[in-house]
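User: Let's play a game. I give you a shape written as C-alpha cells, and you guess the letters that built it. Ready? Here's round one.
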C-alpha cells in the first residue's frame, strides 16, 4: 500500500521540477563542443596561408603519460572533422578498443565553405586542369558574390606541407608513434591519399581513399601507379578504398581497376580491401565509408 500512497507525492515532485525546468529554459550562445578535442593554428610557409589542425584525442590520453598512439591524418577537416571525431568516440565506450588513435584533421582558416572548396581543389589534385579551375571559380563566385581564383594541381606542395610542417608539429606536441601513421580522405581527399601512396609511400602505412576521384585528369593516377611499380618492388601499406553503388559507374570501375593493378604487382607487405555500399550515393556514402575504414584498417569492432 505504501507505493500507492506515495504516488501523489511523486506526481507533485515531478510537477514542481518540470515547472522549474521550464522556468530555466534558455538558449546558450556557445558552439557545441566535441569532447576530447583540441585545435591548433599555424601559418604554413609552404602554402603561404593560415591553417588549422583539429585533433581528436583518445578519451584517456591525459591519464596515461607513457602510452604512444598511432596517428591518422585526414584531409577536408572543415567539413568532416565532427563526423570523424564522433565515429572515433563510438569505439571508446564503454571500453576503448585498441588501437586507440589520435585523429588529426587538416583544415583552413576560412570565411565560409567556398574558401574550403577553392583550397581543397588546389591542394588535393595532382595536376592542373584550367577548365576545372574556371568552372569552380564560377560556381564559388555564384555562391558567395566574391571573386575566386581556383588553381588545381597543388598536391605536391600540399604533401610537402603535411610532411614538413604538420607532422612535425603533431609529433612534437603529442605522444604519437613516428612509425605508425595513416592518411585518409574522401573524393578529392581519396585522390590525394592515393597520390601520396605513389609519391611518398614511406610516409604513411595506412591509406584510406573513400570514393576517390581516380578519373581525375583522364586517370592520371594510373600513370603514377605504373611509374611507381617500375621503380619499386616492395610496398608496405594497408589500403582501403570504397564507393557507393549509386555513384557514377566510372567511380566503381576505376576503384576496382586500381585495386586489381595493386594486387597484380604482388608487393610484399601490401593489403588492399575494397567495398561497394549498396544504394549509396557519393554524398550519402561518407559516414558508412569512414566507419568501415575504422573497422578495416584498425580492426575496430
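Assistant: Ready! My guess for every position:
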Amino acid at each position: 500500500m505504501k507505493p500507492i500512497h506515495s504516488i501523489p507525492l511523486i506526481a507533485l515532485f515531478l510537477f514542481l521540477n518540470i515547472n522549474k525546468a521550464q522556468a530555466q529554459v534558455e538558449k546558450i550562445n556557445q558552439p557545441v563542443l566535441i569532447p576530447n578535442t583540441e585545435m591548433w593554428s599555424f601559418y604554413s610557409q609552404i602554402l603561404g596561408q593560415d591553417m588549422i589542425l583539429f585533433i581528436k584525442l583518445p578519451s584517456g590520453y591525459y591519464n596515461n603519460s607513457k602510452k604512444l598512439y598511432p596517428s591518422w591524418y585526414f584531409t577536408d577537416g572543415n567539413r568532416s572533422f565532427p563526423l570523424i571525431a564522433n565515429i572515433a568516440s563510438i569505439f571508446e565506450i564503454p571500453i576503448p578498443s585498441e588501437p586507440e588513435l589520435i585523429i588529426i584533421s587538416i583544415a583552413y582558416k576560412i570565411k565560409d565553405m567556398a574558401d574550403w572548396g577553392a583550397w581543397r581543389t588546389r591542394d588535393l589534385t595532382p595536376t592542373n586542369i584550367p577548365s576545372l579551375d574556371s568552372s569552380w571559380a564560377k560556381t564559388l563566385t555564384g555562391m558567395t558574390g566574391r571573386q575566386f581564383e581556383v588553381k588545381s594541381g597543388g598536391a605536391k606542395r600540399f604533401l610537402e606541407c603535411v610532411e614538413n610542417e604538420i607532422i612535425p608539429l603533431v609529433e612534437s606536441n603529442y605522444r604519437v608513434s613516428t612509425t605508425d601513421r595513416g592518411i585518409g580522405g574522401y573524393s578529392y581527399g581519396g585522390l590525394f591519399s592515393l597520390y601520396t601512396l605513389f609519391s611518398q609511400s614511406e610516409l604513411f602505412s595506412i591509406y584510406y581513399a573513400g570514393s576517390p576521384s581516380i578519373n581525375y585528369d583522364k586517370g592520371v593516377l594510373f600513370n603514377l601507379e605504373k611509374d611507381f611499380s617500375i621503380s619499386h618492388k616492395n610496398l608496405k601499406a594497408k589500403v582501403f578504398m570504397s564507393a557507393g553503388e549509386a555513384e557514377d559507374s566510372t567511380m566503381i570501375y576505376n576503384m576496382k581497376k586500381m585495386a586489381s593493378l595493386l594486387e597484380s604487382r604482388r608487393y610484399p607487405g601490401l593489403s588492399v580491401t575494397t567495398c561497394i555500399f549498396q544504394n549509396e550515393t557519393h554524398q550519402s556514402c561518407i559516414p558508412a565509408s569512414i566507419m568501415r575504414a575504422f573497422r578495416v584498417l584498425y580492426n575496430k569492432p
